[in-house]
Amino acid sequence: MNELSRREFAKLIAAAGVASRFPQIQTTNRVIGIQVGAVSFLDEGIASVLDRFQRDSNINALFVAGFTYGRGIAGRQVPGQPLPDHGKQEYDTEFHGGNYARTHEQYYTHTSLKKIQAPDHPGFDVLAEVLPQAQSRRIKTFCWYEDVFRRDLAGIDRLQEVTLSGKKASTLCFHNSEVQAFWQALTEDYVRSYPIDGVMWGSERQGPFGNAIGAMHGGAGSNPFEVTCFCDFCKQQAKARGIDVERTIEGYRKLATLVRDARGKSRPSDGYFVSFWRLLIQYPEILAWEKLWNDGQHSTYSNIYQLTKSIRREAMVGWHIWHNNSFSPFYRAAQDYADFRKYSDFLKVVMYNNCGGPRLASYVNSVSQTIFEDFPAEEVLGLTCKTLNYQETNLAELPSKGLSANYVERETRRAIAGLSTDGQAPIQIWPGIDIDIPTRRDEKKTEPQDVREAVRAALGAGADGVILSRKYSEMRLGNLRAVGEALRA
Ligand SMILES: [Zn+2]
């Protein structure tokens, strides 16, 4: 939203007499947000959780996990990880996921995926329960939902992506109209049914090119023959764009074979990088299909934005930008901040510096077994850090040291610069700060000093706020208190 339209909205809101009910976030008033799921309110009580947030961390915005089938933002601590010093001291091994607010069926007529009510906490509508208490404390409430599914849901098979080898994937295809209808239904349900201050949606996924070359943290385990999407909807879209489907599939099969050979240390005579680049020249369809996939994801952003604004102009709409933006230059290139200006009020750019260490190392170890197989992993780290403009440590220490607060500062500045017109970012930047995101035993753990430094780095670089991530149920209290300490300092 640019400044002019922001002023127009303010006038509209004042005219409608709802200014006090939905106060706009002032640019002078930083958003200190926290991601929190239903289980924490049930385990610890809504009032006492909100008391703690306000007292210890100056929290003024909740990002309540509304919909997910993943454990990253809902449920208690991941089993096997140490339980934090609050909440029920047991794991929720029966975790299922779904919609943690009430599902209002009338909105789901254009999608066969509609039985999404989370069975985890029967009768507890997290938005209905939390909103009144948050409002009375002048804490804003955002509904936070993400693109994570499970395979055993009624009606989901019609929405699933199809892999290069022709199998159904667990992910949903953005070019399938029922998938767009599903996200529209869920968004409409949230924005019409609850007086929320806004929505945040996240999709931690990339297209077939990035997945084929293992360009992500955890990428070493990816199967280049099972990248997506090659369903009939995507093929139709491709034809409309003049992309040759058969040539695309042939190109991706050759790319997958090259990746498999690289992992098997079977070096082509011209080396890995030249062979890889030659494929891109011979099959420009590879990148055309990657763009097709990206466009589907971005049309989802745009559709959610347009629908929300059509229902309630003052509701803020923003996006969780996947951490891979901090590791893979290929993924980063597809996240054009200037483009996001068209359909965003805010961006939560993930800048998790603690778990960022092991994750960057994981990315480097993955691509140094595929397209950069000719380089030692340490040199791939150097190349990556220079490409991304980081000053970080060596590969041996990276997993245990994490990334620095300087990384948070640089990424905040880059986001603001990328969004800016005339030196001013027209939308708000609320970097995601990680507190106790699980890492392996020998890897970096969050300490209060890390939190103080990361919060100061983000705000010092000009961020309009921060979002503490990824969920309260895994955060230790000393680290939460460090947020308040950083803000008071
Ligand atoms: Zn598809």
Ligands bound to this protein structure:
zinc ion
Number of domains: 1
Number of DSSP-assigned strands: 12
Strand composition percent: 5-15%
What would the average pLDDT be, to the nearest integer? 94
Main beta sheet: 10 strands, mixed
Calculate the terminal CA-CA distance, rounded to whole Å.
32 Å
CATH architecture: Alpha-Beta Barrel
**Number of helical stretches of at least 4 residues:** 18
CATH superfamily: Glycosidases
Q: Gyration radius, to the nearest Å?
A: 22 Å
List segments where confidence is low: pLDDT < 50 over at least 5 consecutive residues: 1-27
Order of helices and strands: HEHHEEHEEEHEHHHHHEHHEHHHHEEHEH
Broad CATH class:
Alpha Beta
CATH topology: TIM Barrel
The geometry reads as globular
Secondary-structure content class: alpha/beta
Percent helix? 40-55%
Compact overview of the structure:
Helix content is 43%, strand content 11%.
Written overview of the protein:
The protein is of the alpha/beta class and 489 residues long. It has a single domain, classed as TIM Barrel (Alpha-Beta Barrel). Helices cover 43% and strands 11% of the residues. The protein contains 18 helices and 12 strands. Strands 1, 2, 3, 4, 7, 8, 9, 10, 11 and 12 form a 10-stranded mixed β-sheet that branches. Strand 5 and strand 6 form a beta hairpin. The N terminus is likely disordered. Bound molecules: zinc ion. Zinc ion binds next to helix 7.
